[in-house]
UniProtKB/TrEMBL annotation:
<dbReference type="GO" id="GO:0045087">
    <property type="term" value="P:innate immune response"/>
</dbReference>
<dbReference type="GO" id="GO:0002224">
    <property type="term" value="P:toll-like receptor signaling pathway"/>
</dbReference>
<feature type="transmembrane region" description="Helical">
    <location>
        <begin position="534"/>
        <end position="555"/>
    </location>
</feature>
<keyword id="KW-0675">Receptor</keyword>
<protein>
    <submittedName>
        <fullName>TLR21 protein</fullName>
    </submittedName>
</protein>
<comment type="similarity">
    <text>Belongs to the Toll-like receptor family.</text>
</comment>
<keyword id="KW-0812">Transmembrane</keyword>
<keyword id="KW-1133">Transmembrane helix</keyword>
<dbReference type="InterPro" id="IPR003591">
    <property type="entry name" value="Leu-rich_rpt_typical-subtyp"/>
</dbReference>
<dbReference type="GO" id="GO:0042497">
    <property type="term" value="F:triacyl lipopeptide binding"/>
</dbReference>
<feature type="signal peptide">
    <location>
        <begin position="1"/>
        <end position="18"/>
    </location>
</feature>
<feature type="disulfide bond">
    <location>
        <begin position="28"/>
        <end position="34"/>
    </location>
</feature>
<keyword id="KW-1015">Disulfide bond</keyword>
<dbReference type="InterPro" id="IPR035897">
    <property type="entry name" value="Toll_tir_struct_dom_sf"/>
</dbReference>
<feature type="disulfide bond">
    <location>
        <begin position="428"/>
        <end position="450"/>
    </location>
</feature>
<dbReference type="InterPro" id="IPR001611">
    <property type="entry name" value="Leu-rich_rpt"/>
</dbReference>
<keyword id="KW-0732">Signal</keyword>
Length: 729
């Protein structure tokens, strides 16, 4: 009898705990996904059972994880504990989680990492430990039991030491990311135990540590990405005492700073890595004007790199940059070159002639004009080039452009879109084998015989065309979207056409003659367009079809979504003006454009969430409840935040989602409590340039002081102080 009574009491206790769990996290009821994020929890709620596979406890106030907290959650696959206040974990807290595949402990207060935490996590593939307080990984490896680990992210602003043996037990990684901007001590050989890393990302400033890490990774990493480093002179070889063959194929520098002296040295040093095929420089700064040690570079022999990508590299005195005379021997093997958004205005003719192997050349979003293009593409330059992208430059004459490019005898694909050509002449000279031509968004009012007849693909979208009457016998694809066409092109001049895009024009009728003899794919005509003579007799059918079309369009363009949004708006207006203090979970809800996410997530969030004391920010990417309607997410997050912080930019005022966040907040924030709004101006915006639909924003920018992000580093500290004071007020 006592056994029955004991079983009864145990079942009753379990049922009681499950009821408590449902009260704490309603989403845990009858589902494998348990979302308890942003609920102000101080401990892991009791009642977790084996049916739960995903547990989200992020953005709470949990400080300690006890042995019994997760003991029953034996089928857990995903455990999210980021952005809490965890400072201690019992040694056996995770021992029952043998099926766990993803564990996120980032942005907590862990001052050390214990190997005991991970020794039973045999299935773990994804581990995030960044943003804590530990200074090193201990004397041995915390990861020795993680044989299936594929993704590892660790490090923080205090992280300063990597010791030999810290990565023992890890053999293969798809991605390893180390946040080590203050990493000062690296014991050589520490990373050699990892046999293969597909992609390693490391934030680093110490050049000595950089060199040591490169030497250790020569035989294991395929793609090495180095961020935030300020490169200085390095005299020692990067491959000293290393044996062939090497594995590293791609090297990326991001947010790095170079000098002329280091450019010369790194070119020489990287030649020693004979496996290196691709180099990238993204969002970097070059302090210099091309005064490189050409003699030293030439003596070191030819470069074997085949692909170079340079994107948004700032050269402060770019107008004084030298012509790199003497670098000809370094570009012979290059097959692909991209220099984008870097204010390039020419390549010297003598240098261009030595790019003998280049097949792909991308100069989009630069400062090329026609007379400089003529020198860049001089006779015998780029002899093997097949694909060229000159979009978003300052080319004005299509005739001069064509004449210059006619020297590229092997050119097949050409993109000169988003240049301002305007009127084009009746005749032009192009490369004889040109097959693909992109002339979209080029302000062309009328096409002429200047367009080459060798084309197989032509894109003239987004111009001001009112007709298309060209004869292009080889053309297979034609893109005419966003023009002013009132009739389709004739079929006879385009006998091989198989695909045509004519959306967003002014077409109002089609004739049978326009399609005779042509094989045009993907053209769909409505019943009205094909049978105008039968309109009266088929009026009832058309009404029925119209209803079906409206239903289909409503489904395709989310009409139900907009109705629900309106209903949510009306419900929100009836809510109390201010949420009770106990319901405030965040210091600020951050509204920003996806295009500004790099600044928000990597700069602002790091500055504010790692402040002392830290601020709790609400970001849609990480804090919106998965599966919850996005409008409800916006309203709830604004109501649970002490402030609403708008990151203003040109991208912001073009974003529809940012407009929704403004709309949902203005009646509660702007109209009722101006102090709840903080405006951060990421880039200058004229009030008159703001679209009329942002009327509330226009008004408040004229009446309320806002914070401007200063480009100068010496002014940025004052900016962060002002922003923190505004968040505290």
């Amino acid at each position: 009898m006592w056994r029955v009574w004991a079983i009864y009491m145990l079942l009753a206790a379990n049922l009681s705990e499950e009821q408590m769990l449902k009260q704490t996290c309603p989403s845990c009821d009858a589902t494998q996904l348990c979302n308890c994020s942003s609920m102000g929890l101080d401990v892991i709620p009791p009642g977790l059972t084996g049916k739960i596979t995903t547990l989200n406890l992020a953005h709470n106030r949990i400080k300690h994880i006890r042995s019994q907290d997760l003991q029953q959650a034996v089928n857990l696959r995903v455990l999210l504990l980021q952005s809490n206040q965890i400072n201690s974990i019992d040694e056996d807290a995770f021992h029952s989680l043998g099926k766990l595949e993803l564990l996120n402990l980032s942005y907590n207060n862990l001052s050390h990492l214990s190997p005991a935490w991970f020794e039973h996590l045999f299935s773990l593939r994804h581990l995030q430990l960044q943003g804590n307080l530990y200074r090193d990984l201990g004397e041995s490896s915390p990861f020795s039991s993680l044989r299936n680990l594929s993704y590892l992210h660790l490090g923080n602003l205090r992280f300063s030491t990597i010791r030999h043996g810290n990565f023992e037990g890890i053999e293969l990684l798809n991605t390893l990311q180390i946040d080590g901007v203050n990493l000062g001590l690296y014991e050589p050989g520490s990373l050699k135990s990892i046999q293969k890393i597909n992609h390693m990302i490391i934030n680093l400033r110490n050049i000595t540590v950089f060199s040591a890490i490169v030497r250790d990774l020569l035989h294991s990493v395929i793609w090495l990405e180095v961020r935030e480093i300020k490169l200085e002179i390095e005299k020692e070889s990067l491959v000293q005492n290393s044996t062939l063959p090497f594995r590293i194929r791609k090297l990326t520098f991001k947010d790095a700073s170079f000098t002329d002296q280091y450019i010369s040295r790194i070119i020489v040093l990287l030649k020693e890595i004979t496996s290196l095929q691709e180099i990238e420089a993204i969002d970097c700064v070059l302090e210099g004007r091309g005064e490189w040690n050409i003699d030293e570079i030439a003596r070191s022999g030819e470069s074997l790199v085949e692909r170079v990508t340079i994107v948004n590299v700032m050269i402060r005195n770019f107008h004084l940059f030298l012509d790199l005379d003497g670098m000809e021997s370094q570009v012979n093997k290059l097959k692909s070159l991209t220099i984008a958004s870097s204010r390039v205005f020419m390549v010297p003719c003598n240098l261009a002639k030595h790019f003998s192997s280049i097949l792909y050349l991308d100069f989009h979003d630069n400062l090329l004009v026609n007379n400089r293009l003529d020198e860049t593409v001089c006779e015998d330059a780029w002899p093997s080039l097949q694909t060229l992208n000159l979009s978003q430059n300052s080319l004005k004459s299509i005739k001069q452009t064509a004449n210059s490019l006619s020297r590229l005898h092997k050119l097949i694909n050409l993109d000169i879109s988003q240049n301002n050509f305007g009127e084009i002449p009746d005749a032009c000279e192009w490369p004889k084998d040109l097959k693909y031509l992109n002339l979209s968004s080029a302000q062309i009012p009328k096409l002429t015989a200047c367009i080459p007849t060798t084309l197989e693909v032509l894109d003239v979208s987004a111009n001001n065309l009112k007709e298309f009457g060209l004869q292009l016998p080889l053309l297979k694809e034609l893109y005419l979207a966003k023009n002013q066409l009132k009739a389709l092109p004739g079929a006879a001049p385009l006998p091989n056409l198989v695909a045509m895009s004519v959306r967003r024009n002014k077409l109002n009728r089609f004739s049978r003659e326009e399609f005779e003899g042509a094989q045009v794919g993907a053209v769909h005509l409505s019943l009205m367009e094909c049978h105008r003579s039968l309109v009266v007799s088929l009026i009832c059918i058309l009404v029925f079809l119209l209803i079906l079309v409206l239903v289909a369009l409503g489904y395709k363009y989310h009409a139900v979504w907009y109705l629900r949004m309106t209903w949510a708006w009306l419900q929100a207006k009836r809510k109390p003006k201010r949420a009770p203090p106990k319901d405030i979970c965040y210091d600020a809800f951050v509204s920003y454009s996806e295009n500004d996410s790099e600044w928000v997530e990597n700069i602002m969030v790091r500055e504010l969430e790692q402040a002392c004391p830290p601020f709790r920010l609400c970001l849609h990417k990480r804090d919106f409840v998965p599966g919850k309607w996005i409008v409800d997410n916006i309203i709830d997050c604004i109501e649970k935040s002490h402030k609403t912080l708008f990151v203003l930019s040109e991208h912001f005022v073009q974003s529809e989602w940012c407009k929704y966040e403004l709309d949902f907040s203005h009646f509660r924030l702007f109209d009722e409590n101006n102090d709840a709004v903080i405006l951060v101006l990421l880039e200058p915006i004229q009030s008159k340039a703001i679209p009329k639909r942002f009327c509330k924003l226009r008004k408040i920018m004229n009446t309320k002081t806002y914070l401007e992000w200063p480009p100068a580093e010496e002014q940025q500290e004052r900016f962060w102080e002002n922003l923190k004071e505004a968040l505290k007020s």
